[in-house]
Specification:
This protein has 413 residues and is of the alpha+beta class. It has five helices and 24 strands.
Length: 413
């Protein structure tokens, strides 16, 4: 057979090549398509999960400005209600509590019994001291009676000696006996005084077993229970309490605010002010500046200002958040409050060259373009539009926070 015929037999027909290879190519194409589809679905699911993960953010509430905010207020600052007179009440001796007569919220009067310690040992010491004092007093009385008799004997001995019935030596011995009894009586009186002092000491220690209120106030913390050991000094190890409870004089409540040192020049002593509690935003409490504390906090660049509340109310309690407006002393005409809302200055950020505020609605951050007013109110800025009073805004939003992102308010520690 020739070479040409051999080559002709080895040649594969085009139809046979189509029938043998076409099936495998189709299968490969289907597998590749399925893989690409799965990857696309996975990417979409991952994008959806990451895009909907709630981001923790710090928030604040937009508030409507008052007439004073636009007219008479020269500065606004935030602070807390503090008590100038409060005490952690403890026993002055170490002992075991047998009674605790207070609960949180109880109103107490000065001298009222708050707790009692085990007093068996101190009562026994007091009774022993009293018995010793009585014995010393009886001994002094006995010496006093002997002295009285000796003085009468001296008078009789002198009379007999003058008549020669007894010797002068006998009369002198009687006077010596009298002088000795005088010294004994003086010593007995000193012993009696010493014994009475011991009674006083024992009485004081016994009185220390009763814990009393140092002033009128309200119990804000009950720190110990019956059966626990209390001591004025910490014994270490966590087994000894150093206090029975905390009492606060509600009449001593005032406000401590930190004013930025750049604006402290606007605040003066006795300056009129207005306080608004975070818990009661519609309640305006008249106040005035007590003093500007002559010390600055270099870390926060602030100066502490003490503000007195001119109104006492049960709703005002220690550690409440409060916003203080310092008012201009000059008379001003009544004016309508400025239009818009007040938001923290840190809530206003730049996005694409524009000022924006993120408002939290339905756990989503919604971006609102704003045009803040040029006038500032301490740490607050006036936003005339785009934000409503009562809206929750994001404070210091992250650079990657975008419109529609899921958010959740960060929990305060």
């Amino acid at each position: 057979m020739s070479n040409a015929e051999l080559l002709k037999q080895l040649r594969i027909d085009h139809a046979q090549r189509e029938s043998h290879g076409g099936g495998n190519g189709l299968k490969v194409a289907i597998i590749v398509g399925v893989v690409v589809l799965v990857l696309a679905i996975g990417a979409a699911v991952a994008w959806w999960l990451l895009g909907n993960k709630a981001v923790p953010v710090q928030t604040a509430q937009a508030t409507a400005p008052t007439a004073q905010s636009g007219a008479g207020s020269v500065l606004q600052a935030t602070g807390y209600i503090t008590a100038r007179r409060q005490a952690t009440v403890s026993a002055q001796i170490t002992g075991t509590l047998t009674e605790v007569l207070i609960e949180e919220g109880d109103r107490v009067k000065k001298g009222q019994v708050l707790a009692r310690l085990d007093d068996n040992g101190y009562r026994a010491s007091l009774e022993a001291a009293k018995a010793s004092a009585l014995a010393s007093s009886a001994q002094a009385a006995q010496v006093s009676a002997q002295l009285e008799q000796a003085r009468r004997d001296v008078i009789r001995a002198d009379a007999l000696a003058q008549r020669g019935l007894v010797s002068k030596q006998s009369a002198e011995q009687q006077r010596a006996t009298t002088d000795a009894l005088v010294a004994q009586l003086r010593s007995a009186h000193r012993q009696t005084d010493s014994a009475q002092s011991q009674v006083n000491v024992a009485q004081v220690n016994y009185d220390y077993t009763v814990v009393r209120a140092p002033f009128d106030g309200v119990i804000t913390d009950k720190a110990a229970q019956v059966g626990e050991i209390v001591s004025p000094l910490s014994a270490g190890g966590g087994f000894t309490r150093t206090g029975v409870g905390t009492i606060v004089d509600m009449d001593s409540l005032e406000i401590d605010v930190d004013v930025n040192e750049a604006y402290i020049g606007r605040v003066k002593a006795d300056m009129a002010a207005e306080a608004i509690l975070d818990a009661y935003p519609d309640w305006k409490i008249p106040a005035h500046v007590i003093a500007i504390v002559p010390a600055a906090d270099r870390g926060k660049a602030t100066v502490k200002v003490r503000v007195a509340l001119e109104l006492k109310d049960e709703r005002i309690v220690p550690d409440m958040g409060v916003r203080v407006s310092f008012l201009d002393a000059r008379p001003v005409k009544a004016a309508a409050p400025p239009k818009g809302v007040l938001v923290p200055a840190k809530a206003i950020v730049q996005r694409d060259g524009h000022d924006v505020v993120f408002v939290v609605a339905d756990n989503r951050a919604r971006q609102h373009a704003v045009t803040p007013a040029t006038q500032s109110y301490g740490e607050l800025r006036l936003v005339p539009s785009a934000v409503n009073a009562g809206d929750t805004v994001v404070v210091s939003p992250a650079d990657d926070l975008r419109d529609g992102a899921a958010v959740e308010p960060a929990k305060t520690p």
